[in-house]
Amino acid sequence: MSKIIQPNMKLQQFKILPISLLAIATLAQACNSNQKKDSADSTTMTAHNMGHGAATGDTTDNMKNGTPVNRFFEEASISGMVEVEMGKIGQKKASMPRIKEFAAMIEKDHTEANEELIKLATSKNFKLPVELPALKKEHLTDLNRATGKDFDNYYINMMVEDHISDIALFEGATKSPDAEVSAFAKKILPVLQKHYKQAREISLLFDQNKDRK
Asked: Which of 57, 70, 83, 151 could connect to 110 by a Cys-Cys bridge, CB 3.0–4.6 Å?
């Protein structure tokens, strides 16, 4: 009986051995693959962190040195043109008298600011944009399509959002090393803050009126 079992045991051992070696080899390959993946992930994360750090450094430098003059001129010009157009649209289409009055103030104040900006940019040989980017035109088109209370709501919310961006832009420009740019930004900033405050007040009033209905 033992002579018959012995060959089968050897055969089983012979069959098990390659399978065990294959399992070990597969495990080793998986470990090696994981090590490479971890290394690649680590490299990718390091590169991401380096890039993020570089961006953070740029932001810090911009905060210290103020908004770059060329970027300020371009963005302030586009923003100013948008505000004037929105002021005109608001006076025509708003259903709330207070929004019509607000829109008239927006057109007047931003027209004056735009004229000063043009003079300042011209004195520094910077050519301002003469038309709005496509995305801004789309926003104005969407606004023009709205009517009644929908228009009022859309309009005043856009004014709140736009003036948040405007204030951030001009706050950066107040730190500009260019004394004339800094002085202009400091002059216009309180006007933008007044616009934002009034837009928020109207927005809250609009929301309260909707809740009552």
From this structure: 83
Q: Quick check: 141 and 170 in contact, CB under 8 A?
A: no
Nearest partner of 136 among 89, 92, 83, judged by Cα: 83
Phi-psi region of 38 (alpha: psi -120 to 50; beta: other; left: phi over 0): alpha
> Are residues 88 and 23 both part of a single domain?
no
Q: Which of 206, 213, 211, 208 is nearest to 94 (CA)?
A: 206
Rounded distance between C-alpha atoms, residue 74 and residue 91, angstroms? 26
Question: 57 and 23, same structural domain?
Answer: yes
Same domain, 17 and 108: no
Q: How many angstroms separate the CA atoms of 62 and 70, rounded?
A: 13
pLDDT the model gives residue 68: 87
Co-location of 38 and 102 in the same domain: no
User: What are the tens digits of pLDDT across the range 28-39?
Assistant: 454 454 444 444
Q: Does position 3 have pLDDT exceeding 90, yes or no?
A: no
* Contact between residue 35 and residue 29 where contact means Cβ atoms under 8 Å apart: no
Helix axes 148-173, 69-93, angle to 10 degrees: 160
pTM, entire model: 0.67
In the structure encoding, which two tokens stand for residue 46, read together? 């390091």
